[in-house]
Specification:
Elements: H1 10-17, H2 22-43, H3 48-51, H4 60-79
Helix pairs in contact: 2-4
Length: 80
């Protein structure tokens, strides 16, 4: 495994600090999100415009759809 550091805004870090097991669940969620994102990128690799600037302003829509499409997977990952 390789360590990848993510800087969180203070308000998110404070909220996560109050949740038992949050770090493990966030790590599982991020691994799943990156896998899905890379998979989608591979599917559309012929169309560079699809991903250029996909998160330029916000990744909210992508993350919401990712969670909706994979809720069971993320719940399973959170249990590990």
């Amino acid at each position: 495994m390789t360590t990848f550091t993510v800087e969180l805004p203070d308000h998110l870090a404070a909220r996560l600090a109050t949740k038992a097991g949050a770090r493990r669940r966030v790590e599982s969620f991020l691994v799943g999100a990156i896998e899905v994102w890379l998979g989608r990128q591979r599917e559309t690799s012929g169309d560079a415009s699809t991903w250029s600037g996909a998160f330029e302003n916000s990744a909210d829509d992508f993350v919401d759809q990712l969670i909706d499409d994979n809720r069971d997977l993320f719940e399973e990952l959170a249990q590990r």
